[in-house]
Every structure is written in structure tokens, then in C-alpha cells.
Amino acid sequence: MTVSDLDRLIQLLARLPGLGPRSARRAALKMIQKPETLMLPLAAALEQAAENIRACSTCGNLDTADPCAICRDPARDRTLVCVVEDVGDLWALERSGAFKGLYHVLGGTLSALDGRGPEQLNVAALVERVQAGADAETGAGRPDAAIGAGRPREVILALSATVDGQTTAHYIAERLAGLGVTISRLAHGVPVGGELDYLDDGTLSAALKARRPA
Predict the structure, then answer these.
(1) Domain span at residue 17?
(2) What per-residue confidence (pLDDT) applies to 137?
(3) Which of 3, 10, 38, 209 is the most exposed place for a label (fewest CB within 10 A)?
(4) Which residues pair with 184 in a beta bridge?
């Protein structure tokens, strides 16, 4: 490996969350010292992941299949839809084991500072998802056997307790008003300014169980 190759490896590793230049150099050195057991398997796994992993067209989760395993799971409660900012938050809630419904990944929050409006988020798909459930409830365009089958009845806004997160939650609540679903938010356990991906499993579980009307 040439010096330029090594520098490029360190620079790429340093872009990962939690890895600065010093940690990236240590990780690169470890991989170089064990190419057969570490570097080559990692390179193969990265290549396979890049080729096979995709976003679920239903909820936005990452998986090798579309719909994802969560959306395909018949044991999940399809009357509950938990709205999260990104896939990391979805994974955090799954680790807690407290939620057995479905998810919807927004892809971020509203932010005037960053120029991110509703069009940049997966909000329209959420409204369509709830509306489709409402149509199924009334039987619009659906056979009688499908009426009310698995329609969302509660949307949980599991967004970070930041200004942008709460602004986004308020906007979504307004968009879903009148569609016949209960809208709730995470309650105590999530500190103001806190982000879900950094909370422990117990805190997430308590927040889910103590959710309140939006």
C-alpha cells in the first residue's frame, strides 16, 4: 500500500461519526496489520452492503428487501405508526424492544436555518399512508374483506425534543388532523434538547409507554 492509499483510507475513516483523525489512524493501522481477518472481510461486506441495501419504499428503513423485514412482519401492530427523524432513531427504538408497531422515517426535521422544508422530508408519504388507511376503513375502492384491515389508528411522533423536532411534530399533527387517527408524542424520559439515538433503552421504553396526546 502506497502512502497516498494509506492517507486516503485514513481520510475516509475520519469522516465516520465518532472517528477523528487519531482514531482513524488507529483503525487503519489495525486493519493493515490483519488484512485477512479484518480488512478484506470488511471490504467485502462494504461492497455487498452498497450493492444490496436499499430504503424501504413503505417506511424508509434500510434493508436488503423492499418492503423491509419490519413492514413484512405479520406480528407487528399495523394500527400503530411511529414517526422518527432518521433510520438511527428507528434502530434505537427497536433496540429498546418497547414498540411492536410500524415506522415511518422522515429523513430529518424542518429547519429554516438549513433550508429544509416539508418538500425535503417524507411527510407527504406519511399523509398518503394514513389517508389510504382511512379509505380502507370506509371501503373506498377496496373489497369488503379489506375494509379496516390494519389501518393506522395512532401516529406516534417520536421526534427529538429540539426546536426543529417540535416544530416538525406540530406541522405533522396539523397535516394529519381530520384523518381519523390519534396523534401522540413521546412523554417524560426524553430530555429537552436530547436526540433519540443517544438515549438508553430504558429511557426510550419509558417515553414510549408514557406518550400523551399531541
Answers:
(1) 3-52
(2) 60
(3) 3
(4) 156, 213
Cα→Cα distances 31→8, 41, 48, 80, 154, Å? 14, 10, 19, 43, 47
* DSSP structural state of residue 193: T
Q: Helix 201-209 crosses helix 87-96 at what angle (to 10 degrees)?
A: 90
Cα–Cα distance, 4 to 83 (Å, whole number): 44
Q: Which residue has the cell 461492497?
A: 47
Mean pLDDT of the chain: 86
Residues 109 and 184 in one domain: yes
Cell numbers at 142, concatenated: 377496496
91 in the same domain as 36 = no
Is 57 a domain residue?
A: no
Distance CA 133, CA 149 (A): 8
State how far the Cα of 50 lies from the Cα of 62, in Å rounded to an integer.
11
Whole-prediction pTM? 0.77
Number of domains in the chain: 2
User: DSSP assignment, residue 39?
Assistant: I
From the list 102, 193, 118, 85, the residue with the least C-alpha distance to 150 is: 102
68 shares a domain with 47: no
CA 168 to the chain's CA centroid? 15
pLDDT given for residue 138 in this prediction = 56
CATH code (residue 160): 3.40.1360.10
